[in-house]
Amino acid sequence: MDVQRIAAFSHGTDGGNPAGVVLCDVLPAAERMLAIAAEVGYSETVFAAPSGDGWRVRYFAPEIEVPFCGHATIALGAALALAHGDGTFTLQLNDARITVTGWRNNPALMAALQSPRTRSAPAPQKLVEAALGLFAYTAADLDPRLPPAIAEAGARHLVLALTDRQKLAAMHYDLEQGRRFMMAAGIVTISLVQAETDTRFHARNPFAAGGVYEDAATGAAAAALAGYLRDLGWPHGGTIEILQGEDMGVPSRLRAEITSEPGASIRVSGTARRM
Fold first, then answer.
1. Ordered DSSP codes for 104-116
2. 134 with 111: CB under 8 angstroms?
3. pTM
4. Backbone angles phi, psi at 171, to 5 degrees
5. HSE-up of 173 (CA within 13 Å, CB side)?
6. Contact assessment for residue 6 and residue 75, using Cβ atoms and an 8 Å cutoff
7. Contact at 8 Å (CB) between 219 and 231?
């Protein structure tokens, strides 16, 4: 298998979250894709094969298959633009049909995905208490303007908003304990965010369920957060910027565009770079 390595949501020529991208004629068996993802070692590797008028796509972390991955989709959009020219590509996921647009903006690569539909709901109190314990946070650390929520845009995330940027920077937890917690709760990541302004957020995304301590950029969580802000009536003004990876030394930039229609797809875009 020819594995391309592309960092999505990069900040100029630096940062971004690396993803493996495999373009093939026919998707391999799931066990083979999981083994390749484990060998690549990135938080996700995306596999895509031509199917009908688009591409059949599956995403694998080193330890599990995930239903949707935003940064790997951005990386895929860049790879498809390189292979087939600038354009919009239809992607058939396990449970949704979405699109990604890729284009070359020399010397940069750009991509924008349209997420699956979004939904959100208040997070159960016991789940929130367990999550706070995982990170040694307390209820007093939470931003009351953004109550804890389960937010979805193709994958489930627990959203916890903190009031203090330094508390976010100091995030730590036990990987194995986090894996058990996320698997039991049926969530893909925990989306820890801090609102610098109404439209600018800092984020960290532990991904213990996939065997990864933290993602440098998480497009699926960005779409889920944007959908949650819409449901909440947050004054997002139609667009938010998410800064992620800074506390890892891997600066990443994500842009999410939010329409007024409840549950509608979120457009998440950013720069990509070949590694």
1. EETTEEEEEEEPP
2. no
3. 0.95
4. -50, 130
5. 29
6. yes
7. no
The DSSP result for 124-138, as a single string, is PHHHHHHHHHHHT--
- Give the distance, in angstroms, between the CA of residue 261 and the centroid of all CA atoms in the same chain: 22
Read off the amino acid at residue 42: Y
User: Under a CB-based contact definition with an 8 Å cutoff, are residues 34 and 41 in contact?
Assistant: no
For residue 7, give every residue at least 6 positions away whose Cβ sits within 8 Å of its Cβ, in sequence order, or none: 15, 16, 17, 18, 19, 75, 272, 273, 275
Query: Which strand (E) or helix (H) includes residue 70?
Result: helix 70-84
- For residue 215, give the amino acid letter: D
Check if the beta carbon of residue 38 is closer than 8 Å to that of residue 62: yes
The residues, any chain, with a CB within 8 Å of residue 242's CB and separated by 6 or more, are 193, 201, 202, 203, 222, 225, 253, 254, 255, 256
Q: What is the pLDDT of residues 173-215, one digit of tens each?
A: 999 999 999 999 999 999 999 999 999 999 999 999 988 999 9
Are 120 and 150 contacting, i.e. CB atoms less than 8 angstroms apart? yes
Model confidence over 83-128: pLDDT tens digits?
A: 999 999 999 999 999 999 999 988 789 999 999 999 999 999 999 9
Residue 177 has φ and ψ, to the nearest 5°, of -65, -40
Helix (H), strand (E) at residue 74? helix 70-84
- CA 223-227-229 angle, 5° bins: 115
Helices 219-232 and 70-84, packing angle to 10 deg: 120
Closest CA to 182 of 161, 153, 213, 137: 213
Q: Which amino acid appears at position 192 of this protein?
A: L
